[in-house]
Amino acid sequence: MLIASQLEPAYARTVYPCFDEPAMKATFNIRIIHDPSYVALSNMPAIDVSEMKDENGSLWTVTTFDTSLKMSTYITAFVICDFDYVTRTERGNEIRIWARKEAVKNGYVDYALNITGPIFSFLEDLLNISYPLPKTDLVALPHFGADAMENWGLMIFQESSLMYLPRDKFTGRKTLIAITTSHEIGHQACEMLRHFFFLFKWFGNLVTMNWWNDLWLNEGLASFFEYLGATFVEPKLSLDKIFYDHVLLPILREDNEIEVRSLSESEDKIKESFSLMSLFNSITYNKGASITWMLSRFLTEKLFIRALNSYLKTLSFSNANQDDLWTHIQMVVDAQDEVQLPASVKKIMDSWTCQNGFPVLTLNLSTGTISQEQFLNRKNENSTDSYNNTWIVPISWMRNGSSQPLMWLDKSSKTFPEMRVSESEYDWILLNVNLSGYYRVNYDQLNLKRLARLLENDPKAIPAVSRLQLIDDAFALMHFGYIQIESALELTKYLAREDEIFIWNVVLLNLVPENLESTLKNYEVYPLLKKYLLKRMLPIYHYYAGLIQQNVDTLEDDYFAQVYLEKLFATACWLGLQDCLDLSSELYAKWMDNPEYNIPFLIRKPVCCYGVAMGSDKEWNFAWEMYNQTNSTKEDKDILLSALSCARESWLLYRYLQYGLSDTLFSSNCTSNMILYVVTKDIGQRIAWEFVTENW
């Protein structure tokens, strides 16, 4: 038995009578009466544990907690469990990590314990503000609707966000725990300022938004700080790379439809058009973090942190809207003369938070003119020119490898004489260096060709994140009808010299769709794509294949390899690279000879798939046998269920689908997945369709 609370946004009213609004803060006295074999936890430390008998003579434990600090109803919390914990003290703050007894005994929460204290200290030092509670409990639940919740003093996580198991060594799990913990701890600062992710929730707890329309002040700021905390405790992570990969690029792909809401909406519009729960989405988290990232870049981190410190100290234990934050930043800007802004902080930032979408900047190098318009799909009939949004855009830029002073585009079009280029093909311009601004860039053909030539001659002349951005912008512009596909492909010619796997991932996302069937159907494109990509993939494929065969442990700290190597390897095999197919067959045969052998986790899924694909019924039967072993984990079963659909003999696919109808072997959910797996395979679509119609 287990009880845990999740009261955000408006569920406190279902637990106790209250004015359940974020602006109405109070102190709370909490007492819980519970079974004596369980422990009760709440926001504050327990100050008394006593016993009582009910009318039937049964004995109960009464746990009374200290009076809370002044806080909002939605972060009151309680857990009643029979968990165990590990503990340490950091600067007088007792930190306890609670989980199932077996998980604690096996050391699965030790990593979370080791990073939580340092993240708290990092934030306290960075923001010059002390954590006001005497204890912090982090609880790992077997099931939890959210990834994590920043209740002040009692943070709640689902197990996968807090536990690090030995088998997770090559999964990227450690990094994700760091990010989640930081986010939630960041919120603690903001009640005071989530565990990598959690620790940053000081932001909603110290200073809370007036109402839910400014939720981004909580979640956007915490999502920004979670990456600072994660890279502090895991220094091998690159802050720039992981922020763009996790936050900026995903939201740029999403925030480009007319109906997507703006970051900050009026209370009336929220009440008319949105449910409160719908506000907890990527616009709030990722766009909020991206706008904060841009703000910290044009202000400089020093001024940004100084302004935040003022904001948190002045408004501690009270409420704020975004204008309060702009006021504190303006005060810091006015008190110095290093950073000059083209307009007030409020005017600049309202152009990003109160309008939906983001701009695309179009650069004409022969005149030095930059124009802006909202980035919308030109192929979509609903995208009309009546959306005349303009933004006040900070432009970081580089010329021939040298950084240039920040420029501002504060109207729809403006000419910058210093951005005109000469006739020399070695004279080039790069805008939005390291993706410091929340926008895309559309270069004219002249500069695009110069950048493509530069990449072929010396790819490292352009920073890694900017190479990623160039490619992603070009394909996004192509998909939305701004440029032709030839222009986008121009920037991929250099890829044989690209050694960053996170850049390769963006290339493959754009060139090799998840549903490969659509590309295969286009018989003209597939052989060209195969020839073009394979030639360029060989160096990076051989580099990683070599590491896997010689010493896979070297990849233990390579987060991007852990996350993206599977896609790279699967694509190489799909394109028919013989080395890849041979390696898959070799490792799969090794597993068949010795079922105790572990195929390297990073490429287990494609190896199982192509091991089955390159084999006969013998290989298929082995996968089926391993799938049915009772000690297989859910993860292993998922990989094998997918691999069984990779068979290239029709009769094996028919048998696989037929097995899927068995109530004793599979749930109906599994059956639908099996049909979907077959549909995406080269020969599977016709077979799956026949099977569905025959067995309707």
UniProtKB/TrEMBL annotation:
The annotated active site, in chain numbering, is: E184
Bilayer topology reads: Single-pass type II membrane protein
- Write out the annotated subcellular location: Membrane
Q: What does the entry comment about cofactor binding?
A: Binds 1 zinc ion per subunit.
User: Which residues are marked as site: Transition state stabilizer?
Assistant: Y285
Entry-linked Gene3D superfamilies: 1.25.50.20, 2.60.40.1910, Neutral Protease Domain 2, tricorn interacting facor f3 domain
InterPro entries, per the entry: Aminopeptidase_N-like_N, Aminopeptidase_N-like_N_sf, ERAP1-like_C_dom, M1_APN-typ, Peptidase_M1, Peptidase_M1_aminopeptidases, Peptidase_M1_dom, Peptidase_M4/M1_CTD_sf
User: Where does the ERAP1-like C-terminal domain lie?
Assistant: 428-696
Please indicate which superkingdom the organism of origin belongs to.
Eukaryota
| Cofactor(s) needed by this chain | Zn(2+)
Residues annotated as binding Zn(2+): H183, H187, E219
GO CC annotation terms, alphabetical: cytoplasm; extracellular space; membrane
Which GO biological process annotations does it have?
Answer: peptide catabolic process; proteolysis
Pfam families given for it?
ERAP1_C, Peptidase_M1, Peptidase_M1_N
Q: Which family does it belong to?
A: Belongs to the peptidase M1 family.
The protein's name is Aminopeptidase Q
What is the species of this protein? Struthio camelus australis
